[in-house]
Amino acid sequence: MEERYDFLVIGSGIAGLSFSLKVANYGSVCIISKDKIKDNQISFKVEDTKFPLNNYLIEINKNNKIYKIPFSVCFLEKDEKYIICDIDFTLSATNIFLYISNNVLHIKALYNSQYFLNELSNFFRIIYLTGRKESFTRITKIWLEKNNFPPGPLLARKMDYNNSLGMFKTEVLKKITDISKNGVGIGDLKSDIFAYLNNNIIPIKIQHPLFYYSKNDKYKYIKDHYVVSSWKGIEKLFIQEKLLGFEIKER
User: Fold this and answer.
1) Would you state the pLDDT for residue 234?
2) Beta 183-187 vs 202-206: how paired, if at all?
3) Is 82-245 assigned to CATH 3.40.50.11890?
4) Could you give the C-alpha distances from 63 to 41, 60, 66, 67, in angstroms and in order?
5) Given CA atoms 110, 111, 116, 121 in this order, what sign does their dihedral have?
6) How far apart are CA 175 and CA 162, in angstroms?
7) Where do the domains of the chain lie?
8) Is the pLDDT of residue 222 over 90?
9) Would you tell me how many other CB atoms lie within 10 Å of the CB of residue 159?
């Protein structure tokens, strides 16, 4: 009997199964493996969300030890509206000492960042784009979840990526803007603004706050981008300038 599939995946390892999950929403998948995929070896737990974003937890049983690997699969629709958000000094009051001492989870979130980013997630896709290396991906996702930030894919630099941070973000954003240019980018560095401008994304530069609990809600437009001093300023900016058509009453 002849069977037809939209995708043919060779191998049932992590790469093969991960790819199968990514394309499963686009058609039928056939996995060819030299060994049986045993339930007690690898399993996927899928959590449905209101947006086309699936959060997966891969559980691998190896030598009677369970390894858990979380990852997200995001589907961005053509011309969909989204927010690109940096992590360090944009969402987190990053402390170099806590980095060095492997206490990343103790880094505090900037005041109002969780509240307003969650508010934005009701209207727009949230995509996290960080200059952190991939080795920090898992701990960064745990930090985002621990601090109640909205779900979204996390894009980080590969360990062997040698170009500048600005070029890395520019290259990643090019792939995103090929699908949709309806985005706003939030970051703290000149390289963030460089990447946003190069991809025609509305840029917002958040200045390094003196205190993580800053409530300064002022914002201004300088040359080609917005500048704010806190997430209260970002909230006011979205409301008053109606970025991406955003409309909500001020608190």
Assistant:
1) 95
2) parallel
3) no
4) 10, 10, 8, 10
5) positive
6) 19
7) 7-74, 82-245
8) yes
9) 8
R_g of the chain, CA atoms, integer Å: 20
Residue spans of alpha helices (H) in 89-207 = 96-100, 113-121, 137-146, 165-177, 190-198
Distance CA 236, CA 98 (A): 31
**How many CB atoms within 10 Å of residue 215?**
13
Write out pLDDT tens, residues 62-101. 666 666 665 566 678 888 999 999 999 999 887 766 666 6
Which of 46, 128, 136, 62 lies closest to 100, judged by CA? 136
**pTM listed for this prediction:** 0.73
Count of all residues that appear for the chain in the document:
251
Token couple for 238? 């979205």
- DSSP-derived secondary structure letter, 213: T
DSSP string across 71-107: EEEE-PPTT--EEEE--BTTTB---HHHHHTT-GGGP
